[in-house]
């Protein structure tokens, strides 16, 4: 089965009744956890972005505590898993401020992690790529936010 394009879906959805749209959304939420998470964000958390960011930070803190730090292999796997989740939450929000905030927090936690990531080239490259992504996202923000985040980036 070939998937329809976004514009085709938009046209088809515009012809549906509110009741049919509700059924479609509920049907979508049953298939994938990501669909359910996205619906949860859109229905409950889109109005309060600060609370959304804080809840993700708390989740990140828990995930960093659960990382198996016996070897760098397990540390890398744990870091990539956390980063994959953070990127998913950033995609839900689509806001550059949220992206910058979450990636900066990830980099801070990564920098403070023990054993030090400076002893592993792969983890340092991961860290450097995320800092580069933060700089790229900061460049797309308003000037006052660029200044604020620029000061914060100087610590890295």
Q: Keywords for this structure?
A:
156 residues
Task: State the gist of this model.
With 156 residues, the chain is mainly α. It is 76% helix and 0% strand.
Distance between the termini: 48 Å
Query: Helices and strands, in N-to-C order?
Result: HHHHHHHH
Instruction: Indicate the overall shape.
Output: globular
- What gyration radius follows from the Cα positions, in whole Å? 19 Å
Fraction of residues in β-strands: under 5%
| Count of extended strands | 0
Task: Describe this entry's structure for a reader.
It is a single chain. This protein has helices spanning 6-14, 18-29, 33-45, 49-65, 72-93, 96-112, 121-138, 143-153. The protein has 156 residues and is mostly helical. The protein has a domain at 48-153. Helix 5 (72-93) runs antiparallel to helix 6 (96-112) and helix 6 (96-112) packs antiparallel against helix 7 (121-138). The longest helix has 22 residues, at 72-93. 17% of the residues are buried. The mean pLDDT is 89.
Give a topology summary.
Elements: H1 6-14, H2 18-29, H3 33-45, H4 49-65, H5 72-93, H6 96-112, H7 121-138, H8 143-153
């Amino acid at each position: 089965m070939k998937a329809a394009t976004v514009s085709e879906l938009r046209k088809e959805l515009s012809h549906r009744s509110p009741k049919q749209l509700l059924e479609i959304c509920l049907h979508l939420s049953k298939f994938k956890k990501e669909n359910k998470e996205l619906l949860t964000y859109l229905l409950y958390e889109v109005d309060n972005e600060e609370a959304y960011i804080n809840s993700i930070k708390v989740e990140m803190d828990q995930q960093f505590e659960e990382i198996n730090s016996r070897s760098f292999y397990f540390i890398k796997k744990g870091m990539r898993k956390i980063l994959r989740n953070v990127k998913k939450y950033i995609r839900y929000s689509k806001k550059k401020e949220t992206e910058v905030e979450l990636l900066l927090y990830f980099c801070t936690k990564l920098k403070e992690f023990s054993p030090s990531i400076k002893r592993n080239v792969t983890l340092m490259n991961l860290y450097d790529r995320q800092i580069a992504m933060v700089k790229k996202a900061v460049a797309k923000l308003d000037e006052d936010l660029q200044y604020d985040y620029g000061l914060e980036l100087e610590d890295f």
